[in-house]
Amino acid sequence: MNIVLIMPNVFPVPATKGGAVETLATNLLLENEKSGKIHFICFSVYEEEAFRFSQNYQYTEFIYIDEKRENKDLTFVSDDKNFIHYMDKIYEHLKEIRYDFVIVEGGNVAGYEYLLKKLPKEKCLVHFHGSGKEANNVVMTQVYDKYIAISQYQKNVVLKNAQIAEADVNVLYNAVNLEEFDKQISEEEKNALRQKYHIENNDVVIMYVGRTIPKKGVKELLLAFKQLKNIAKSKMMIVGSANFDAKTKTDYEAELEKIVADIPDKIIFTGYIANQDLYKLQNIADIAIVPSIWEEPFGLVVVENMAAGLPLVVTKMGGIPEIVNHQSAFIVENDENLITNLSQKLDVLIENPDMRDQMGKAGKERAKLFSSEKYFENFYQFIQKIKSN
Q1: Please, which pLDDT band fits residue 100 given cuts at 50, 70 and 90?
Q2: Where are the domains of the chain?
Q3: How far apart are CA 67 and CA 269, in angstroms?
Q4: Distances (CA, A) of 101 to 120, 122, 366, 377
Q5: Which CATH architecture is the domain 2-175+371-388 placed in?
Q6: What are the percentages of helix, strand and coil residues in the chain, rounded to 5?
Q7: Model confidence over 215-262: pLDDT tens digits?
Q8: pTM value?
Q9: Which string of b and e fits 305-330 if b means at least 16 CB within 10 Å?
Q10: Which residues make Cβ contacts (< 8 Å) with residue 195, sequence separation at least 6?
């Protein structure tokens, strides 16, 4: 069976530069290497290190399109000349390739009409990775035959925004390579990190991982932290930046720093940390928090923190409640009491180390539902199902 994956024209696959969609695809391809059940053809932007890693894959053919897309804010427009060039190059190859299905992996899913209208509709699938509202274009039903959502929440949004039959939308939960986040570092390494970030051994470390942008709720988190009864024994670690590894500071990031200017010894802004290095910081964290104030279609960072054995405080937004349960996380409503509720739940965890341990163990067990192995199994069953229909 030959499956074509068309990646967004932003980051490369294998995921040498990060990117949630690219990492997910990389894990899928790696799982396929164990069985070789599928022959993948993966279209991706070119990057030297990714090309080098691609040589190690036996069951995936990587076709790289060399383009210079500098915009990494993930805003996709149909008249982007680089995007059109990307699709033109892909079509040149597709004319010479035998395939069973073409799967568009997120990005400008409506804009791909330019390419997909030249292909048989029954072979074209789309894997939504955004909010789901990108399905509001009539193009959806003209060029795609089947649809993949990453949560039940996102499926509901897709169905609300497009005239698509419910049976044609399949939920395929995202996944992570659990082993990457279930790694321990030595006490010497932990002590070195604590020293680097000025963390005392008795500090309870609360960790946020993600982009430092408004919809992620970082401002609300910092305000909640300042309300803690137990702030004296706590540290807040903000892991990430507004625009991945970009060096420039946004106005929002400046606002965040201003909010906590009076408690500089309590807040740690690490800046961008590569995904493959996150487990090191998770090793010195005690609590993880995902305070999103927008409807996250999924939330890979939730699974990553569960895999690391960290108890969670999350907001009841989008697909996040589908990932956790009440044994692994406190689930907080995003309402007018958000800041107070975040603060109260954090205080509960700070005061109860046994509870943190129990919730962390429950999360680790639940994370197995979102493993790369489970993801590949579900993906393969889905493909087999639509192929036999």
Answers
A1: very high
A2: 2-175+371-388, 178-369
A3: 33
A4: 9, 8, 32, 17
A5: 3-Layer(aba) Sandwich (3.40)
A6: 45, 15, 40
A7: 999 999 999 999 999 999 999 999 999 986 667 889 999 999 999 999
A8: 0.91
A9: bbbbbbbbbbbebbbbbbbbeeebbb
A10: none
